Amino acid sequence: MQAVHNIPEICAQLGITDVVLSPGSRCAPLTIAFARHPGIAVRTVPDERAAAFIALGLAQAQRRAVALVCTSGTAGLNYAPAVAEAYFQQIPLVLFTADRPPEWIDQLDGQTIRQTDLYGAHAKGSFTFPADTAHADAQWHATRIVSEAIGLAQQFPAGPVQVNVPLREPFYPKQGEELQFGPVKVTRELPGRPQLPAAVLHELRDAVQRTSRVLVVAGQHPADTELLLALQQFAATHHVPVVGDLIANLHLPAAAGYDQRLRPLGRQDVFMAVPEPGLKEALKPELLITFGQSLISKALKLYLRNAKPAQHWHIQPAGAVADTFQSLTKVVRMEPVDFFAALSEVSVHPHETAHQEQATRSIPVGPTTNVKPQGFEPSASSIIARADATRVASRPQPLGEPVRLSWPTPDADPAKAAYLKPWLAAESWATNFLQDFIQQPNQPFNEFTAIYHALQHLPDRTALHLANSMAVRYANILGVPAGRTVEIFANRGTSGIDGCTSTAVGAALAQPGRPVVLLTGDVAFFYDRNAFWHNYPMPNLRVVLLNNHAGGIFRLIDGPRQQPELEEFFETRQPLRAENTARDFGLRYFAVSTFAELESALPVFFAAETGAALLEITTDSATNADFFEHYRALVRTSFSS
């Protein structure tokens, strides 16, 4: 078993310090080796599906690979949803799946399936550990495989890699037997950043300068201070609008001197829904520059597919590139930060190591281990006056300063300024429209307004996880309080509901000194209750649960909402409440069903001393649908240029 016992040592030497394992017999040699290694933090999660998403959350938060260990048979299949999400979200996971020896496959032996290449096209690679390692060459092979797997998982674009480990009995060391770790030879991947020749960069810069209608659109992207500053400089240099959904993390304040007048635009989910031909024509780009991954805003996505630019450049250092808008003309193989800095004639020095790069460029959140949770107290500006009546929304705080309608530098090219102005005007209109809409009096209690109030109370430095379905859509429309450091996470690689809670749990475990808030709906929450089925404290976790007792999104989609089968076969109405779940797993429970109750609960819910807590906001699905349809109708009729 020495080759198996060396696996944790290789992981530790190559930067993997966290392992999530699920108990089993066939995986016992791996379990014992990881558990006894002094450099590995091991967490046990019985449900493999939840375990894999918890590992994904750990890797997301720490920006480095996390390992998983499971037993043979269908256990590994339960990793599949998280594997697919990690693949499309480019999160590094290394999956050690214990297996029977090859001669016992397809021989009706228990807990035996075909595990080779278990995840197919949704893993970056699959390796098979040697079943017998007595020969020196087999030991060299085993060590090399683990090094290669970890390196592959972390190479850009990062992703999941499987190592299938056939194991023979006996699985357990003798009583009192000590395990030896190493010495082992590892192969390290040294990070590098592609650079284009100076002549090519000059050509690209000239193209941007010559083109009057240039638009930058950001897809999902981790928070990155250098990128925010490079984008600001690029926008100021070329007078270009920069647009990004909430999951692009462009809303964050990059530095103390960050010019808010140049902040990227984020209200496109509002103004792109305006059926105004003149506006759509005014916003049409000639050159579209994109980076990052998926978009939430369907309205923006459809608009760019219809208003096809003459040129579309996508900035990505390596890997396959999607032609999301059916207009791709050029792939620029650079890091986005390097591209925007180079085209702004700003020097950016590559960091010496990937770890230093992540530490410098990620949004600072303070120490992440052995720290008493801080930052849950809402700031004074986020406290909203309580409502006097149970069905009347309190007056909210401003959504943010209106966007300037003129560029702050006087030397803008007239054609570029003419293209920039309608983008800024639309953003300003959308901000003011949302402010007026949210504060309208005598509202029925509804989840759209309730979410707004919850977002206003978010502590600074929060890692906000948005579950799929309506939670992520509502948040993308409403945004987060301006100037507050709230980093956004969402499983938009596959956009499934199956592991949203577990991913947030992983983040809370990864950074115990940082507030982690999950905004989720009832279907996603109850589907993933096993996220809490473990023995690790999470005093920094807050769950905001929108319970309308149905899959409420289907009342908002044309098609299912017009069908007589809506309630039974699409909404799948359910009577569940979260109180029992909160009690079972030691979460402090808050229940509200009026604006007054919500405003009373929020300050206590987010207080540091509250500990792990769940706030259940109960609303009526039909009322939510009517209120949101009212919002959409006003968007279509209220725009003024």
Set out the fold topology.
Blueprint: H1 2-13, E1 18-21, H2 28-36, E2 41-44, H3 48-62, E3 66-70, H4 80-89, E4 93-99, E5 125-128, H5 136-154, E6 160-166, H6 198-210, E7 214-218, H7 225-238, E8 242-244, H8 268-271, H9 277-283, E9 287-291, H10 298-306, E10 311-315, E11 330-332, H11 336-342, H12 354-361, H13 414-438, H14 447-456, E12 463-466, H15 470-478, E13 487-490, H16 500-510, E14 516-521, H17 522-527, E15 541-547, H18 566-571, H19 579-584, E16 588-592, H20 595-606, E17 613-618, H21 621-638
Parallel strand pairs: 1-2, 1-3, 3-4, 4-6, 5-6, 7-8, 7-9, 9-10, 10-11, 12-13, 12-14, 14-15, 15-17, 16-17
Helix pairs in contact: 1-2, 1-5, 3-4, 3-16, 7-11, 14-15
What does this 3D model show about the protein?
The chain is an alpha/beta fold. The longest helix is centred in the middle third of the chain and has 25 residues, at 414-438. The chain has helices spanning 2-13, 28-36, 48-62, 80-89, 136-154, 198-210, 225-238, 268-271, 277-283, 298-306, 336-342, 354-361, 414-438, 447-456, 470-478, 500-510, 522-527, 566-571, 579-584, 595-606, 621-638, and strands at residues 18-21, 41-44, 66-70, 93-99, 125-128, 160-166, 214-218, 242-244, 287-291, 311-315, 330-332, 463-466, 487-490, 516-521, 541-547, 588-592, 613-618. It has a six-stranded parallel β-sheet, with helices on both faces. Strand 12 (463-466), helix 15 and strand 13 (487-490) form a beta-alpha-beta unit. It is built from 21 helices and 17 strands. Helix 1 (2-13) packs across helix 2 (28-36), helix 3 (48-62) runs parallel beside helix 4 and helix 7 runs parallel beside helix 11 (336-342). Mean pLDDT is 86; it is low at 346-360, 363-391 and 402-408.
